[in-house]
Write a structure and sequence with these properties.
Shape: globular
Strand content: under 5%
Largest sheet: 2 strands, antiparallel
Structural class: mainly alpha
Helix content: over 70%
Number of helices: 19
Distance between the termini: 57 Å
Number of strands: 2
Amino acid sequence: MELKNGDVAQLARVLDWQSRGRRFEPDLLHEMKTFCKRRFFCFILLGERTYIIEAYSQIGYETHQIHFNFFKFKGINLNRLITQMFQKIISFYTLFKTALKGEEQDFTKINIKRGIFLLSVPMILEMIMESLFAVVDIFFVGKLGDNAVATVGLTEAVIIIVYSVGVGISMAATAMVARRFGEKKFKEAGSSAFQLLVFGSSISLVISVLGFVFAEDVLRLMGASQEVISVGVPYTRIIFAGNLAIMLLFLINGAFRGAGQAHLAMRALWISNGINIALDPIFIFGLGNFEGFGLVGAAWATTIGRSIGVLYQLYHLFNGKHRLVILKENLVLKWKTMRKIISISVGGMAQFLIDSVAWIVLTRITAEFGSSSVAGFTIAFRILIFSLMPAWGLSAAASTLVGQNLGAKKVKRAAISVGLTARYNVFFLSVITVIYLIFGDILAGLFTTSVEVQKIASMGLRVIALGYVFFAVGMVMTQAFNGAGDTKTPMYINIAVFIGIEIPMAYFLAIPMELEILGIFIAIAVCHSLHSMIALWFFRKGRWKRVEV
């Protein structure tokens, strides 16, 4: 909707009349109100500023400024109000584009709030795609029946160990690369990245062989029925065999985040999961004359999508266009660096392995109440992950900021970054809590037609979401520890809470107290909230400030 010559002339007449300080005549005042209202509506509707700026340029205003010379009406300075509003909108839009574009930044010097925004936007979008994949995947698999959903749930409860190892190594990647970047030792950061690739790939190969050979035993150990085993063994074997892509995707993204290149991590995950989402319905149900592979198709879609994402990561890691690059001279094993990686990543792996063990045990307890309970449990957590992943993305900004600022010897700046990130995370998850409490039934109904499964899933959403405000703080504290290279403190907290309290509580409430699946949900909400408060207490003690990486 372009401004016409008559409109420009009209605006010029109004502004010229005001600039001479003359009183507005009734007809001109009405004309100005009509004009301003019409232009203001069009500006908002189109989301453009070029037309107004173009009009100003023809009457002598500079094109790069936004300045509204409107009038005061009933004590409101419309000039200041409208100008400030549009300046904030355009400032946000510009900053958002910068975050997606991924320009190189020094996060030890730029404004902290700006740094959190530039890091968290791509991290949140990255995690949204990861959580969207989980939801879409279970949506398609759910069409194959409860046994298929149970297979995915039971397999994921074990394959999450692979995720734990990958995430644990990625913690070492983030901590070490961030610390080297804070010290401005970019060549050493590239060397650390190569050691991480070697270490992660070696572990992945061992897991691939063991998982492929013992896939049936894994499902049986998890309490799967014979029907689930007959359907699920091929799926489980493919997922385990392709775990190298999962491992590398996690650890390379950890290195990108540590370097402040969160946009590359975001793009890698969007590419891998976008391909996976596109292939899922084709490989599961077929297309045209292609009949599809059923449940096995979901495994192939996941493996192919993530493998392509890894190829994208490796291209950017070796192309020399970024400050984090693996050069020819970095392709040498350095055992001192490898030992440091192992030291940091062991604590990180232990954190998630302990969490995973608790998850496996809770899933095993859930299996005592039938396939419907497992399906409801799986659907509830897929939906919960959809909201927790963005929260983890926001929290991950604290990890990079802590690591780089500690490397630059700016401890106070690191602590302030953590406090601000925690505040933003609490606000986000508070909103999500309200959504789950109100729309839990509707959300669960999107993924299953079974009334019993829907009831269990919606109950899980409501009960677990009650602890979300506490979860928000705990996520940030944990990421701050990991970014500092202090992976041991969160590990000890996980042992005490998840192994020492959550598992016994879940068993006691579910079986002796006969609350069944509700008891498991209550234990999860209570123990994760307790975990968050303990993490906050340890963070305030400040040991993380003195960790050497």
